[in-house]
């Protein structure tokens, strides 16, 4: 089984194909995974690997570690395009996520004022007031919607909440009044005896309807790029992704980035 990817709270910098030179912040344990989804494609592996020691670093300690890293990078003239909340699970599950965001924005302004702060979130906590307020303060509020059809979403993302629906996500994201980027993983495959494909005409039309409702400033479409815990998934060719992106742009008027 695939294990956690990030064994520290601050990691990188690494090169992100969507975001540039990125310094990562992992708010979940460095020896386990805590997430409200259990996605078939998660590069950090399935939740079954466990929470490790379950330690979630307090916001003051995240601030200290980030300050030290940014100071060292700045002293050595290292470039930085973005500070990205990602890691071994869902970052917005941190009990003081909003305070961590505030610390990060202040440190960014001090050391790398031209860098952006990005959050990669699965949208499950996006309805919570403190989380919403924090997400609206960052430069790139990137929220996930892998399918606008509940059955497909539940097959791909496997949310822990039994009543989690695509309709709930769409309504939540529409409440951000366009101050977000929607990220959608395109793939097909089979798992536990059930097949899925979120690139069919029915799925794409449903996504286009959802994007029109949400009105994000941009949509990011991408497919598999790294090892996945489920081995029966199919990467969507870049040519097909571009076709889907062009169709969605024409149908919605919303900018689509394809990676």
Which helices and strands appear, and what pairs or packs with what?
Elements (H helix, E strand, L loop, with lengths): L9 E7 L3 E7 L32 H17 L6 E5 L10 H15 L4 E6 L7 H7 L4 E5 L5 H8 L8 H9 L6 E5 L1 E5 L2 E4 L3 H14 L3 E5 L10 E3 L2 H15 L3 E3 L1
Helix pairs in contact: 1-2, 2-3, 5-6, 6-7
Please characterize this protein's 3D structure.
This protein has 259 residues and is of the alpha/beta class. The chain folds into two domains: 142 residues, no CATH class; 115 residues, 2-Layer Sandwich (Transcription Regulator spoIIAA). Helix 2 links the parallel strand 3 and strand 4. The model has no long low-confidence stretch (mean pLDDT 96).
Question: Got a strand count?
Answer: 11
Oligomer: single chain
Strands in their spatial order, largest beta sheet: 1-2-3-4-5-6-9-11
The domain count comes to 2
Count of DSSP-assigned helices: 7
Order of helices and strands: EEHEHEHEHHEEEHEEHE
Helicity range of the residues?
Answer: 25-40%
Short structural description:
The protein is of the alpha/beta class. The protein is built from seven helices and eleven strands. It is globular and about 50 Å long.
